[in-house]
Amino acid sequence: MNKLTVLSLTGLLLGSLLTACGSESDPQANTQTEQHQQESQHNEQAEQHVREVHLTEQQEKNLGIKVETLSEGNASSTISRPASVGYDLDQIAKVGPRIEAKVVKVIKDLGDQVEKDEPIALMSSVGLGKAKAEYIRLRTELKAEKAHYEREESLYEQEISSRAEMLQAEAHYQEAKASFNAAAESLRLYGLSKKDVQQIEAGSDKPLSHFYLTSPLNGVIQERDISPGQTISPSETPIHVTNLSKMWVMIDAYEQDIRYLDKGQSVSLSVRSIPGETFEGKTDWVSYSLEKQTRTMPVRAVVENPNRKLRAGMFGTARISTGKERNVAMLPIDAVQTIENEQVVFVPGKEDRSYKPVEVMLGSENEGYVEIASGLKPGQQAVIAGAFDLKSALTAQGRSASHGH
Fold first, then answer.
1. What count of other Cβ atoms lies within 10 Å of the Cβ of residue 243?
2. Could you tell me whether strands 336-339 and 342-348 are parallel, antiparallel, or unpaired per DSSP bridges?
3. What is the pLDDT of residues 348-392, one digit of tens each?
4. Angle between helices 387-404 and 3-50 (to 10 degrees)
């Protein structure tokens, strides 16, 4: 056997050994993967098992577990739902200059009451001053052209002047009138009132560049972001005036409430921070869509706010008088338990004498019963007696499982 043949055989032998090792490692890797998957499935099943209570027949009897099929019950025509208070956006005015201007003096501060058209800040604008000067010039020119036209008209009637001279004077007068009216309208666009424009005079002690930012409504200064010397652009609205006599109340209704809600229904609001008082209003909007995360349906009400006690951001409960008696799933209050900050009701599991908690959202209470707004529907079975003992067993079972790990 020559040297080349020996090398070839050695290479073939090494290759076969490597192949054999590879073929042995693959089944081992597959076996480990399968074991891992089985362990994951086992853990998932164990976790799911912990969320269920399994009882013997004797235990079930001793605990007095009672299961019934949920049926529709008559609930009050008043729907009580969580609500939050916000500003009436139709009663908020965002105030700013319509031409670039510098703040001369701030007249009203945060929290100050203002009346409609009352000055909030004194401003100065070079551009406005030039526009006022042009307005004064055009007003003087208009007076001169009007006088000239009236004189030419009189001379024409006396046959002293020609018709062509009168018509030319009339044309100059109409042109001056149009230019004057355009200048006045420009000042109106800058935010000056008709009275302000009429009071513009040359040689006045008040600089032509000065003007006031005024409030467009009765309200309170809710936001102020200006200081003397600051230059404000026309796109800025640094002052917010809010009329607080009415507030918007956003109510979180449930899907089951849709057929009972409408615009114009009476609302009574109570808030946690003002115990013993209620605020009255009416619904003015019911959403056509549900919130994706909470599955609640927004409803808006406009509520009276005497003495401005309600503040934006407050939370409370809104009671909507629907005038319609509702048919909803009702349960004894004791059937609802709280587990890990969730309100749950126990329902039968897949196996005999097994029970699992289902998260629910609750509605109004009435004579020891509570309505189930979501999570369970009429026709489904639920535990109506022994729920507290099931909760205790489930909690103990969870602790045992955690200690076992």
1. 21
2. antiparallel
3. 998 888 999 999 888 777 667 788 877 888 888 999 898 899 988
4. 150
